[in-house]
Design a protein that fits this description.
elongated, binds (6-bromopyridin-2-yl)methanol, 15 helices, 16 strands
Amino acid sequence: QIDPGSSRGGRTGALTPPPFADEVQKIDANPPKGTRDFPPEDMRLRSWLFHNFREVSRLFGFEEVDFPVLESEALFIRKAGEEIRDQLYCFEDRGNRRVALRPELTPSLARLVIQKGKSAPLPLKWFAIGQCWRYERMTRGRRREHYQWNMDIIGVPEVTAEAELISSTISFFKRIGVTASDVGFKVSSRKVLQEVLMSYSVPEDSFGRVCVIIDKIGKIPVEEIKKDLKHAGMSEVAVEDLLQVLSIKSLEKLEEILGDSGEAISDLRQLFSLAEKFGYSEWIQFDASVVRGLAYYTGIVFEGFDREGKLRAICGGGRYDKLLSTFGGDDLPACGFGFGDAVIVELLKEKGLLPKLDHQVENIVCALDSDLQGAAAAVATKLREKGQSVDLVLEGKPLKWVFKRAARINAQRLILVGLDEWQKGMVSVKILSSGEQYEVKLVELE
Ligand SMILES: OCc1cccc(Br)n1
């Protein structure tokens, strides 16, 4: 609030710099590199997206949770060489604590599950929508923040949990007009990998690291993949054999290699059978190469992709049965997915599925005389108390300006408060789409 006595107090006062500013410093109006503002038109799209995230979560009986954007850095320190670690947005706070802007939501969810302990009866079905951060070198011009929708089921060891989660993402796609011709899910299990690595006696503690390397297949040259795998302790033969297995695209072929008695095959067979019952078989396919880039997955993993192959993964997730115990919690089975807010919008643009979302107001209320500003406020309040949206014109403006604003905000009705009508307890109403105009008693204004 500027002191009315100051040089800027009155509307007509000369616009000289206020006494407290030693110099006028023009700030950079853009947000920090890699981050976005959400002006109204973008915020309407984001709100529409989040509304659909929330609606699907509600339909699946999930409860919303949230966590701080700032977490202890320790939550994300894993030694598997993940990209998410290299790009951690971390710093030391004024209390000399190592903290980080969360790069994902799952570790926070695991922390909250541990914190709640037995007070949160299993199974937990929680969802969250939160902003996640990474410090990406801007040479790649990529974003440093995005919003992620996460759905997680804690306490269910059966593959029914993964089948339910995939069903929820497909429900989301269908709600916004995306079909199985646009998007598919590659599904596999890290137990496939585990069974191959065990047959070559690759140490268990290399597992996470090997998964992170394999997730780079298709993103970096295969020679680099092979070099990294050998560096992670795999023999030449093991590497060749593993890459052979990862190229398998059918469960029958996989069974030939792994046999039909392992957990990997049994989990996958059960998942594909459940997909049939859920009615989404056309959306999913087995693809042994999908491992996802997070070290903590231990079983089924899945990834939503655009069938035209133009975009990065749209969403992804899987089972992470060991994460809670690595945080010192109980050995609880868990699975979940993350669904970012950016790639999906690129897909909607590609498919011409962006919704038309205009700002809309039911009423614009305007006093025809400055002495009636209070009366106009009373009319606005009455309508708002009836649940109607009102844009109240807050200053004396010519009618031409009012009509222009009414058009810009897509107002349905213009309500004019004029002296003659007001003295009769009436206002004049104009339906802007038809031009119909009438006077109505204030007490009867609906
Ligand atoms: O999908 C990985 C990720 C994490 C944080 C921020 C952004 Br943008 N992307």
